[in-house]
# Entry
Amino acid sequence: MISDRTLPIEAFLADLARQDIKLWLDGEKLRCSGPEELLTDGFNAGLKARKQEIISFLQRTQAQASAVTITPAERSGSLPLSFAQQRLWFLNQMQPDSAVYNLPMAIEVEGFLDVAAFTQSLNHIVRRHEVLRTRFITADGEPTQVVEASAPITLDPIDLQGTADLETEVKQAAIAAAQKPFDLSQDSLLRVTLLRLEESRSVVLFTLHHIVADGWSMEILIQELGAGYRAALMGQTASLPDLPVQYADFSVWQRQWLQRENLSRCRRREPKSCPNRIGLGRLQQISHNLAH
# Structure
């Protein structure tokens, strides 16, 4: 589909978004990121052919961005997945025992780690970010998000003090944590393992599924965790800015935006063929997008 020059630019970019391919402007330059297996020579050639058209569209949308407001969505009904989440969900359905989309991270803590304060700060972050207490289930054949009201994390430190080959033990624990698959419909998609190496030295292993996090959001997690831990040590709660919206609100907005664009384009160009309902979450459509 990348080489289809007849496809309207809105539909073209929406198809890339469904495949977790991101395009953005860096000054006057067009930047791109996405799954490595999709960024082929053929993809790059097709992208180059429409480069100026894409840049012009992104410049127009940036100019309009100040008028776009994402508002909190109703939580009474089902919540859709974003296009990026939907692609990852579909891949997980094909390989449920795979850990390829796990995001592991390890931090070493020098000095005594207060487990109670650390757990308190960790759970504060989970309460703060809905996506960290979200499961992904199938309802009426469609993937949907379920945000849990509460999903507390408990830590049971693994004591490695006095271990002969400490480096090997830590490496094995890190590999085991990173390679353990998630059940998207049942599991908490943030796992934390605390390794106590010495009285004043610890390693914390984090594993998240890519459906709820990326590299940028993991940086935010560490920053907020540090702020929360320092506050908890003083018997306080970290003073973090309120979150006006959650990721699920973006998912709802993204679907509504594309639906409006599809209907508007349809009425302008093909009014007789306009469907009464544009289905954006059909598994068959995802399969088609991944295969072409």
Observations:
- The domain at 84-233 is CATH 3.30.559.10 (Chloramphenicol Acetyltransferase).
- The longest strand covers residues 102-110.
- The beta strands are 22-26, 29-33, 102-110, 134-139, 142-147, 158-159, 190-198, 201-209.
